[in-house]
Specification:
alpha+beta; 3-stranded antiparallel β-sheet; 9 strands
Length: 252
């Protein structure tokens, strides 16, 4: 009954007509009359065009309006009928639920924008050990004999390809399910267009459902774990990520 269009909860005039048992043409006329008499209401209604099949492969344009909560309340306030009140309440509740969802998404996006404090900073012993490990790896990288001794000792391979990145991911607080998804669904590509964190999370949630994973991290936790994987974030109409793209986009 209510959907999100351009970041706003809106109702569709076609749904309103069907719910209240009115001809859509009459609902359109009511909206036009409202906007004509009160130009300040113009921002609450948005004219849309849909293609409708009329047979033999031909189509025609069909006009409809989307409206925010204010537009809906003003439009249906005078509607009468046996169940008019029931439908007004149902639509109002739907607006409430959708707007609450939008607020939660906005709050999570703001939380994602704040840099997360690495947990290692709160553990002095772990931090000292990590610094010592990095220093030793830096020294060993410059000496072939030291690298061979490093591997013989059974220490993690941090010298070839993306091994350092893999080791960092496994040693961080990234959930194994996120690491597995990234391995299967992401490809590093510095030249790719930025992708929204929400888009990646939608793909992750779908992948997790297909794999039978019921419990997954929240959008906020997912974003932090992407950062832990070294996937850079920045703000531009929401939180976006640089340098990666989905495997499906590569295939296309």
């Amino acid at each position: 009954m209510v959907s999100v269009v351009d970041g706003e909860a809106v109702a569709d005039s076609r749904d309103v007509a069907g719910a209240f048992g009115r001809r859509h043409a009459d609902v359109l006329k009511s909206i036009v009359d409202l906007v004509s008499s009160r130009p300040d209401l113009k921002r609450t209604f948005s004219l849309k065009v849909a293609k409708v099949d009329i047979g033999s492969g031909a189509q025609r344009d069909s006009h409809y309006y989307t409206m925010n909560r204010k537009g809906f309340v003003v439009l249906v306030g005078g509607f009468k009928g046996e169940r008019a009140l029931d439908f007004r309440i149902a639509f109002y509740d739907a607006f409430e639920r959708m707007e609450q969802l939008l607020r939660r998404m906005t709050d999570e996006a703001a939380e994602l924008a704040a840099p997360a404090r690495p947990a290692i900073l709160d553990d002095p012993d772990r931090l000292r050990n990590a610094i010592a490990f990095v220093r030793a790896a830096h020294v060993a990288r410059r000496c072939a004999t030291a690298r061979r001794a490093w591997m013989i000792a059974g220490l993690p391979d941090v010298f070839g390809g993306d091994a350092i990145e893999r080791f960092a991911a496994s040693a961080s607080t990234v959930a194994p399910i996120v690491v597995q998804w990234a391995d299967e669904r992401l490809e590093r590509d510095p030249a790719s267009s930025p992708v929204a964190t929400v888009t990646l999370y939608t793909d992750f949630a779908g992948w997790a459902a297909e794999c039978g994973h019921a419990a997954i991290p929240s959008l906020t936790a997912f974003g932090r774990q992407l950062s832990a994987l070294g996937i850079e974030s920045f703000r531009s109409d929401g939180i976006k990520r640089r340098g990666v793209r989905l495997v499906s986009e590569v295939a296309a």
